[in-house]
Structures are given as C-alpha cells and as structure tokens.
Design goal:
The structure holds two protein chains of two kinds.
Chain A: H1 2-7, H2 11-36, H3 40-60, H4 64-82, H5 89-110, H6 115-123, H7 131-160, H8 162-167, H9 172-213, H10 217-242, H11 246-276
Helix pairs in contact in A: 2-7, 2-9, 2-10, 3-4, 3-5, 3-6, 3-9, 4-5, 4-9, 6-9, 7-9, 9-10, 9-11, 10-11
Chain B: H1 2-6, H2 8-33, H3 37-56, H4 61-78, H5 83-107, H6 111-120, H7 128-147, H8 149-157, H9 159-164, H10 169-191, H11 193-210, H12 214-242, H13 251-274
The chains are: A mainly alpha, B mainly alpha.
Chain lengths: 280, 275
C-alpha cells in the first residue's frame, strides 16, 4: 500500500475520501429508516428519477443539479401521493420510476449531443471532486441530517407501530412525505459527486448489515457509520490501486458486509436454538 | 396510417411486442400479488449488464440478459422470502450488478452503446429470426405459469393457509422468480429494459383494480398491455411528423407514460366505485 500512502498527499484523493465519508454518515442515518420502512425501492427510484431532471436541465440549458433536485423532490411528492391509501405502493414506485426514465430518454433524444454529460451522473465523478463540491455536500448533508433529527422520534414511532402512532395523533402521512423528501434531498445533492450507484449502496448495505447485528438503534447506527466508512475507504483505495470505477468496489463491499452480517445473525440464531432445546 | 401498417418492420414490431406485452401481463399479475415489483425491476436492470456484456463479446444479447436475470432472481430468492429482507437484498444485488456494468464500461467504452441499445430497445429493427425465439420463450413461460397457476395463486394470496394445506410455498416462490426473470429478459430484449418494468406491473395492477376474478384479470391485463404497447408504437411512429421528420420521440417514453396513466386512472376509478 505504499502507493496509496503517497496518493493521500493528492488533494483529489483527500476530496474523494471526505466526500465519500460525508455520504457514508448521511447514508447510515437515512439508511436506518430506509431499511426499517422497507423503502429500498423508493430510494433507488428517487436517485434515478433525478436523472430525468438533470437531462431536462441540460436540454433547456440550466445547471443539471437544479433539474436533479427539482425532479427528486417532485418524485418524492409523487411517490408519497401514490402510496396514499394503497398497500401496493411499490407498483406506483415502479411506474413513476419508469415514466421518469422514459421522460429522461425523451430529453436525451431531443438533446443528444449533451448526453455524456448526464450519463456521468449515474456513476459519479468521485475522483474529480473539488473542495467546493465537498463543502456543498457537507452543507446539504447537514441539512438532511438536521431535518431527519427533527422528525426522528415520531418517524420511528410511525414506522414501527403505524396504527398506534396514528391514533396517538402522530401525523403519519405528513411524516411519509417528509421522509421521502429527505431521501430525495440526500440523493440529489450527493448523486453528482458519488453517482446514483454509490448513494444507493451506502444507504442500504451498512444500515442493513448493522441491523442484522444489533437491534439497539444507537449501536446499529454507530456500526452502520463504521461499515459505511470501511466501504468508502476500501472502495477508494481499491479504485486507486486498480484504476477501476470506485462505484463497483463500494457496491461490492456493501453487498459483502450485508452477506457477512446475515451469516453472523443466522449463526447466532442457530446457536440460540441449540441452547434452547438441549434435549433434542 | 396506411404506410404504417404496410411496413414489414412495423408488422414485426407489432407482433413481437404483442407477444411480450401479453407475457409480461400474465407474469406481472403474480408479481403484483406477491409484491415483487422491485425484484421485477431489479432483475431487468441486472439483465442489462449481462445483455450489454454479451453484445460486446459478439454473442446474442438475449443470452446475457437471461443469464444475468436468472442469476439475480436466484440471488434474491436465496436471501429469503421475508419482504423486508428481500427488499434490502434486491437493492444490494442491483447495486452490485450496476457496479459490474461500471467496470464493463471502464474496460470497454463501446459498452455504453450496447447498454443504451438494450435500454431503449430496437423495436423497429428486429431480426426476423428473433421472432421465432421470442415465440418459443413466450410459449415456455406461459406454459410454466399455466402449470403452476392454481398453487401459485393460492400461495400468493394466502401463503400461510397454502403452506398448511401442503403447498410447497417456498419452492413455488423460487420457481416463479426464475420464470419471471426469463420473461422480463425476453421483454427487455424486444421493447427495451426501460419499459419492461412498466409492462410487467402497469397493466396487471390496472386489471386488478378493474376486475376481481383472477383469470379474467389476467386476460384483461394482457389486453391492456397490448393496447398500451401498440398505442405507444403508433404515437412514436406519428411523432416523426411532429418534428417534420427530423427525429421520432422514443417508444419508451410513450409506453411508460401510457402505463402510468392507465394505473392512475384505474386507481381513481376504484376510489370512485368504492366510495
């Protein structure tokens, strides 16, 4: 690893790690609720719906990030509206996602010469991040985390015991919308740097793995942050050594973390059963 | 419109898209009942990586699509039947496959062209030999669904009751995931990865909102699927004239929007009817 140690002197690698670690922390906290609420599909959809907005922004000649943010927030409102009074909200998510991608395809067809600009949004440009972008990500992540902290308690209540929360006067529907809005914000501001792929991996893998290991929220959150940091550091290091895309390594590490945590949980459950029935 | 139907390309497009729309609707009916929309969508996205990889190797993209889709379905199935675990596992398998796609793209920049060909499909430029493969795979998948129709319906609607009645719920779930993967891979090959999800869940959910009886619901879903696809193709064809023949708007755009519109309309209708 001497290469990497030398590489750390490069500002771009420092920026990549700083940006990645911010997303890892944000991903751990938002991801905790994403996993608990079974909102993986909505998260995936929101990070891709923004793509159509970015394509539209390129078409009319404004900053892609503006289109990204606008479409992500609109997408959050749409997802919230489609899941009102419906048990099968994942069908609505699928159709809204595909309709946005179709609209993105239309924008790209009409503005074909700028396509590559937008496609890079899918995979991100973590090794081409400058200090200003890291600062912007930090501010946006802090906003998303502050919003999440503000609604964390009622959101947790509404997530684990929806009916009870509703009868206790908790505005569960408003919380649904607020949570989707936070996911959309988190996805939109981090996608340009780390790509839709990384945002998604870092929101799901570490939080889900931590959830398998510990049921206590504090422990699980700390563990998720640590696992996210490992994924980011390992991913950036591997990408630096091999010159392969960082998204691939982070997605792989996130998946491995989850598989390992599932195995540990299964082994523990097996041992627990063994103790409970010694006669068998 | 006469020139529209006279073109052999258009005729092939209409036949092939009708087959995959009907197939998707039948599979999609169970996808909706079982809450598998995310898995259905993820499997095509994973298939995209495989299909584009196969194209670069000079193979038929259908093989890559089917291989990767079935692999993804197996992985999702192996992670367990519980909804929340499946949700997370589906997401992570999807992200992993997209990561492999990023590596392919890095190693071979032509991968982007292969990817976008498969993403948007090439419905007006189908290989006539492909039509026979499409029909064969379609017949196989429909036959598989027909063979497990009763127990699968039972297991999808009331899994606990079905289990205690001796129905192999877990095995059926796995088998269904594999058939779904093959079906969506074929649909993706014909109409594009992008809208295969729309054809999978849109018509089925619309039909469920309109019709109670399962068998009639499946037939209704097939009709909606074919209608949405054909209307989308016709609109894409007509859009040549909107820009004075300079370019046409993508079929994907119209079909995706029509599927969403049908779903929203059916939801509104159900709300009015039930009120």
């Amino acid at each position: 690893m001497p290469d990497l140690a030398a590489g750390l002197a490069h500002p771009y690698l420092q920026n990549a790690l700083a940006g990645g670690l911010i997303v890892a922390v944000l991903g751990a906290f938002v991801g905790y609720f994403v996993v608990l609420r079974g909102a993986a599909f909505a998260t995936h959809a929101l990070s891709q719906i923004g793509f159509a907005g970015a394509a539209g922004a390129v078409l009319i000649g404004i900053e892609p990030v503006v289109g990204l943010l606008a479409f992500s927030l609109l997408g959050a409102a749409g997802l919230g509206a489609l899941s009102l009074r419906s048990r099968t909200n994942d069908v609505g998510t699928a159709l809204l996602l595909v309709a946005s991608l179709g609209t993105g395809a239309l924008f790209l067809a009409l503005a074909s010469n700028f396509a590559s600009n937008v496609v890079s949004l899918l995979f991100g440009t973590i090794v081409g991040v400058d200090r200003a972008q890291v600062g912007l990500t930090a501010v946006a992540a802090a906003c998303a985390l502050a919003l999440l902290a503000a609604i964390a308690r009622p959101l947790l209540y509404a997530t684990v015991a929806r009916a009870a929360a509703r009868s206790a006067g908790v505005p569960v529907v408003a919380l649904d919308f607020a949570f989707l809005g936070i996911v959309a914000l988190a996805a939109a501001v981090t996608v340009p740097i780390v790509g839709a792929l990384l945002v998604f991996s870092l929101m799901l893998g570490p939080a889900a793995a931590a959830g398998c290991i510990s049921a206590r929220p504090g422990v699980a959150l700390a563990l998720a942050v640590a696992l996210g940091a490992v994924a980011v550091f390992g991913g950036v290091a591997a990408a630096y050594e091999t010159d392969w895309p960082v998204g691939f390594f982070i997605a792989t590490i996130a998946l491995l973390e989850y598989v390992a945590a599932r195995s540990i949980a299964a082994a523990r459950a097996g041992a627990g059963r063994g103790r409970a029935t010694p006669a068998a | 419109m006469a020139e529209f139907f006279a073109s052999p390309n258009v005729q092939a497009a209409l036949v092939a898209s009708a087959i995959v729309a009907a197939l998707s609707a039948a599979i999609g009916y169970f996808v909706v009942l079982r809450g598998l929309s995310f898995a259905g969508h993820a499997v095509t996205d994973v298939g995209l990586t495989g299909g584009a990889g196969a194209m670069l190797l000079g193979l038929d993209p259908l093989f890559g699509l089917i291989a990767f889709s079935v692999g993804a379905a197996t992985a999702v199935g192996a992670f367990g039947p519980r909804a929340r675990e499946r949700d997370v596992a589906t997401g992570l398998v999807l992200a992993f496959a997209l990561g492999i796609g990023a590596v392919f793209l890095h190693l071979q920049t032509k991968f982007a062209n292969a990817q976008s060909t498969l993403l948007f499909g090439s419905i007006f430029d189908l290989d006539p030999a492909l039509l026979r493969v499409v029909a064969a795979v379609g017949v196989f998948a429909i036959a598989a669904i027909a063979a497990m129709y009763r127990p699968l319906l039972f297991a999808s609607v009331a899994p606990e009751v079905a289990r205690s009645a001796g129905v192999p719920v877990r095995a059926l779930g796995f088998a269904f995931l594999i058939v779904m993967a093959i079906g969506v891979a074929e649909t993706a090959q014909i109409v594009g990865v992008l809208i295969s999800t729309a054809l999978l869940v849109g018509p089925a959910e619309t039909a469920i909102a309109l019709v109670r009886d399962p068998l009639r619901g499946i037939v209704c879903a097939m009709a909606i699927g074919i209608g949405v696809t054909w209307l989308g193709i016709a609109l894409a064809f007509a859009s040549f004239d909107w820009s004075r023949g300079a370019q046409s708007w993508p079929v994907s755009f119209f079909v995706a929007l029509l599927a969403l519109a049908a779903y929203v309309a059916a939801r509104a209708y159900r709300r009015v009817r039930d009120a």
